[in-house]
């Protein structure tokens, strides 16, 4: 693995992700940012530790990608970039639905019908896409590890939502997969 900096390096993926998030925070309703960054109370130390590890790995992976060159192999670049762009689009759709849902109601429309945690799931897919486009197995494995580390955090979020939204959220839990489609 060779590190460097230049025009054709992975920083492009990070910049696009950051710009999109800044724009969304500026144009969406005020309750959106507060609600988005509300950390649910953890019921045990495992949830907290896994959530911290997930956040560290996610951020360190993005920093690492900035210094890795985009692979010359067009197939890797096209497949990885396609996964990245698809994931970004899914995240944007999820955040839009999230932003415009009444804060006193659970978010259950659109992409939230196929995943209870589309933002987190597609963030992991996005990392895998970046890893493929950089042809870097460490980044790909990082995306997969992040997906596995999500479990305790998603459980904490769901407990928080059950407490906040009650039976409506419990019904949603029973008919919608936690991660994606059938997982």
Q: What is the gist of this entry?
A:
With 183 residues, the protein is an all-alpha fold. Helix content is 69%, strand content 0%.
Q: Unreliable segments (pLDDT under 50, ≥5 consecutive)?
A: none
Radius of gyration, in angstroms, nearest whole number:
17 Å
Provide mean pLDDT, rounded: 88
Main β-sheet, in a few words?
none
Order of SSEs: HHHHHHH
Structural class: mainly alpha
Explain this structure.
With 183 residues, this protein is mainly alpha-helical. It has one domain. Helix content is 69%, strand content 0%. The chain has 7 helices and no strands. The chain is globular, with a radius of gyration of 17 Å. The two termini are 33 Å apart.
Entry keywords:
183 residues, mainly alpha, 69% helix, globular
List the helices and strands and how they pair.
Layout: H1 11-27, H2 30-36, H3 45-65, H4 74-100, H5 118-133, H6 137-165, H7 167-175
Helix pairs in contact: 1-4, 3-5, 3-6, 4-5, 5-6, 6-7
């Amino acid at each position: 693995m060779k590190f460097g900096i230049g025009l054709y390096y992975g920083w492009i993926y990070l910049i696009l992700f950051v710009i999109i998030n800044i724009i969304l925070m500026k144009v969406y309703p005020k309750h959106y940012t507060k609600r988005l960054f509300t950390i649910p109370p953890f019921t045990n130390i495992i949830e907290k530790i896994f959530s911290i590890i997930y956040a560290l790995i996610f951020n360190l992976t993005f920093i690492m990608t900035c210094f890795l060159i985009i692979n010359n192999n067009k197939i890797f670049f096209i497949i990885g970039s396609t996964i990245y762009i698809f994931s970004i689009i899914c995240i944007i759709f999820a955040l839009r639905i999230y932003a415009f849902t009444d804060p006193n109601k659970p978010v259950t429309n659109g992409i939230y019908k196929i995943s209870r945690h589309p933002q987190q799931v597609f963030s992991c897919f996005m990392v895998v896409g970046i890893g493929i486009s950089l042809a870097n197995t460490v980044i790909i494995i990082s995306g997969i590890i992040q997906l596995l580390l999500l479990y305790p955090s998603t459980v904490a979020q769901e407990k928080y939502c059950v407490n906040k939204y009650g039976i409506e959220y419990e019904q949603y839990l029973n008919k919608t997969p936690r991660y994606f489609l059938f997982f």
